[in-house]
Design a protein that fits this description.
Helix content is 41%, strand content 12%. It has an eight-stranded parallel beta barrel, surrounded by seven helices. A two-stranded antiparallel sheet has the order 1-12. Strands 2-3 form a two-stranded antiparallel ribbon.
Length: 368
């Protein structure tokens, strides 16, 4: 069924491939209803230095930024969360409308359900109705190579279809091998994925993003050298997809995978550390993974990010209403501007040069 209970012309006949759609719905429900955060808030380890005499008026603070050639009113990206099941239409519509009105970027969740299985394409195409200044389509790196289940690997035609479905300006390729290892039905083949990403990057504007376990320079550098234009580090410190899949594995009686999810609940590179590792490579960096306020956005940019990414922190509002979504994101943008003012940074480039101190576990990581 499509949005509002109306039949979607591209709904799968006779429930074909319905497991993937159910999985998407389960992910959202688990993030909303169960404790899935990692144990440590790494962004709290980044202390910005107060500038007691800003030298300009608060009204002069200008958070505008350019990302992947698109002008944004604030350095904020709603990173890909969901799609591929009926309830995602309302969530993505609320997010897209808010992104359009506030002038920020937005991505969608993995589009494989729609482009490969024909499941609920309206849950993605609803985003195309709104003038979001930067839209990011989304496919998974594991699905770019043949997997043991026998499904055909996604290629350039499917990537173009993913972009066309939402009117995207760029394609995000997500790396989620931690999640795949905990999923009872996970795709666990990675050989050749780097080359397949490079082949897409030769034809399309590609951004590579992690999904909660962080990017290192060791991974990002060969991707950059193959033409990847930007990175979303999505490090540890926010939602743990090992935790999300732990609960799904429990529900299915998959004891081995459920235990793996517990063991690797907090696995990964902290988000601030990932920013510090990847930013020197000379590509725009989106700092996501545990961003929960405008102050966190400012912290990320001070470390060298171009923008920050939010997902779990706005999901509950997006599942409630457009008004709640817009109010929440507008609050974060206001808090970012307050942080800029108190750092004496009138513009984003000035904030990127702001002084900071690293504390706690993040400092230990950097000094390793």
């Amino acid at each position: 069924m499509g949005a509002g209970g109306a039949p979607d012309p591209a709904d799968p006949p006779n429930g074909a491939g319905i497991d993937l759609s159910h999985r998407k719905a389960e992910h959202v429900k688990l993030v909303l209803d169960r404790p899935v955060e990692t144990r440590y808030r790494y962004w709290n380890d980044v202390e910005l230095i107060h500038h007691a005499l800003p030298g300009f008026d608060f009204e002069e603070v200008d958070p505008r930024v350019t990302l992947l050639g698109r002008d944004l009113e604030a350095p904020l990206v709603i990173t890909g969360m969901t799609g591929g099941y009926p309830g995602a239409t309302e969530i993505n519509s609320n997010l897209a409308r808010a992104a359009a009105e506030l002038g920020i970027a937005m991505g969608v969740g993995s589009e494989r359900a729609a482009i490969q299985k024909g499941q609920f394409p309206s849950s993605f195409s609803c985003v195309a109705k709104f003038p979001v200044p930067l839209k990011l389509a989304n496919v998974g790196a594991p699905q770019l190579v043949p997997q043991s289940g026998g499904e055909a690997a996604l290629g350039l035609p499917e990537a173009r279809s993913a972009m066309d479905l939402i009117g995207a300006h760029a394609l995000a390729v997500h790396l989620n091998y931690l999640q795949e290892m905990v999923q009872p039905e996970g795709d666990r083949r990675a050989r050749g994925a780097l080359e397949r990403i490079g082949a897409l990057a030769a034809e399309l504007p590609v951004l590579v993003k992690e999904t909660g376990a962080g990017l290192s320079a060791r991974v990002a550098e060969p991707l950059r050298d193959r033409g990847v234009r930007a990175f979303d580090v999505s490090g540890t410190g926010g939602t743990s997809f090992a935790a999300v899949e732990h609960y799904r594995a429990l529900d299915r009686g998959a004891a081995r995978e459920a235990r793996v999810g517990l063991t690797f609940w907090n696995w990964g590179i902290p988000s601030p550390v990932s920013v510090l590792e990847v930013a020197p490579l000379g590509r725009p960096v989106i700092a996501s993974g545990g961003i929960r306020s405008g102050l966190d956005i400012a912290r990320a940019i001070a470390l060298g990010a171009t923008a920050a990414g939010i997902a779990g922190g706005v999901l509950r509002a997006a599942a409630t209403s457009f008004e709640a979504t817009r109010t929440e994101i507008a609050q974060w943008i206001h808090e970012l501007k307050v942080a800029m003012f108190l750092c004496g940074a009138r513009t984003i480039p000035e904030l990127q040069r702001s002084r900071y101190v690293l504390l706690g576990e993040t400092r230990s990581w950097v000094q390793r």
